[in-house]
């Protein structure tokens, strides 16, 4: 607590400055503490208590009164000799700060500035100072006339007559909200950074240990077929190790160190495609509404992690409404710099996805800590859901915001930068060869294989549209309706595999011939592959490829 | 029999990959750091490499770069305990797995890469 001298201490104080009409006790740095000091240094010279010969408030004809009305430092004077110590004077700056009129201010106790979230301990500090007749400096949460909260750097000191009888309390105020918020978010960011480093290091070491455990279990499993009890024991241990692996993944996600594969995506499409899964997860008691901004621009995100983030936030929304209710998933475009400034983002265009529930909401303390790892209010809960979402959004150059009101609900906003438009995939591949040439859509994730295959097929007289992913292949297909054959690799890590792509392409062109390539035939057995599909085993040779393609394009003439 | 170079400073992990790859029909040479790996390849050229990322002396990426000075199309897999978000996959043609990786999955990808390299060689020949 930051208190000035009391009556007896002041009597002993050597340095009382005085002239004929007033005297004061210099602060001498005593009011330096955790409270904000608007002077930028330890206040030495300003008075923490004063003594006056004229107690009247009516002398308003001199330069000192003008100064008090002209200063931008809010000030009030309260009268402790009247019941409930009302404000008897408030300067103009005080009215500017609080937005109250003079009529609304005079005659009221200063506590009319306090509200729901004002800290009771701070109020107790002020009471102690008043009781003991000491000066006090505190940072207190006050409220303006329209209900807006603000952090007030409050200083109060006693004004007495020359006999030491208390006449007034003087108080000055200052709005330090912005500074408080900056300090808080800086502290919070530092804390998260430290936790992030710790968890990332831990996850790395654990992943190495888990590799040894899971790998050896996998080896052991191969030799344990004949022994059901042993096989079961190994399978159980494997499951536990997999759970351990998931946990380290979550830790890395929070630490913004997970492996992301960002792609250009449209959030509206992602939400629509994923909504069936969301509805299933939320259950019947939750009414999921979509409010999607038409024509939303794309952003660059890892779609799988984006879906997980959405799912995590929606599960929280569901759990916040045990009796059921409405959850809205909304998208919006934000492109004016004023608004991005409010969200502490550099100017630019942003896509906003907002999940709004009508649940129990969070207290400010819970909302503040909601993204910390292992902080949970759910039983059972891991405390990693929002921590992961926070890590993912930050790693994707976005921003996560949580607005929550107790008993009213929660809005979680994820804000991502818009990806600038660029030309469609591999348009330069559009060829201009002979008009009757047939077009092959070539999809292969290995650059080397794709380049040589494309070159080879061109040399054989085909038009080739080529790309490295199933997603881009579908875009190419939509741009160039005429495709005579799909030749795709089966295993394309990190995206749509060749089998899924073949299905999607057949939805658009039902009778299109499809040739699949793979270097790993055992994979096909596990995927219930339709045996009618044509498969070319890697490594293949040029003439093998030509034969298979010719056979598919001219089925009547060719034989396999 | 195709020859695979396994590099990891954790001897237990290196031994694990070695035994699984051998059981899958590959010939395996193990090294515990980048310099030993370069030496091993100089003595007996490998067809593919499976390496850790962070190792003392030379990391897995540098090692792959050095080996590819010898053979530019050498299939390479990094198995890392720490995610690396550099776009190794498309830019440097390095497949990245995070530990713990399923050994069967690792072998499948390795086989796929070896087949791709062979295919590219066939079509350019």
TrEMBL record, chain A:
Species assigned in the record: Pseudomonas asuensis
SUPFAM superfamilies per record: ATPase domain of HSP90 chaperone/DNA topoisomerase II/histidine kinase, CheY-like, Homodimeric domain of signal transducing histidine kinase, PYP-like sensor domain (PAS domain)
Protein keywords: Kinase, Phosphoprotein, Transferase
All residue ranges annotated as the Histidine kinase domain in the record: 201-420
Enzyme class: transferase
Residues with 4-aspartylphosphate modification: 489
This protein's encoding gene: fixL
InterPro entries, A to Z: CheY-like_superfamily, HATPase_C_sf, HATPase_dom, His_kinase_dom, HisK_dim/P_dom, HisK_dim/P_sf, PAC, PAS
Segments of skewed composition (Basic and acidic residues): 1-12
Catalytic activity line of the entry: ATP + protein L-histidine = ADP + protein N-phospho-L-histidine
Keyword check for Transferase: yes
Lineage: Bacteria, Pseudomonadati, Pseudomonadota, Gammaproteobacteria, Pseudomonadales
Top-level division of the source organism's lineage: Bacteria
Domain Response regulatory: 439-553
Region (Disordered): 1-26
Known EC number: 2.7.13.3
Protein name: histidine kinase
MF annotations from Gene Ontology: kinase activity
Domain PAC intervals: 134-188
From TrEMBL, chain B:
PROSITE patterns: RESPONSE_REGULATORY
Keywords: Phosphoprotein
Modified residues (4-aspartylphosphate): 52
Pfam families: Response_reg
Top-rank taxon, per record: Bacteria
Keyword Phosphoprotein appears in the UniProt entry: yes
Domain Response regulatory: from-to ranges: 3-114
Xref: PANTHER family: RESPONSE REGULATORY DOMAIN-CONTAINING PROTEIN, STRESS RESPONSE REGULATOR PROTEIN 1
Record's protein name: Response regulatory domain-containing protein
Species name: Pseudomonas asuensis
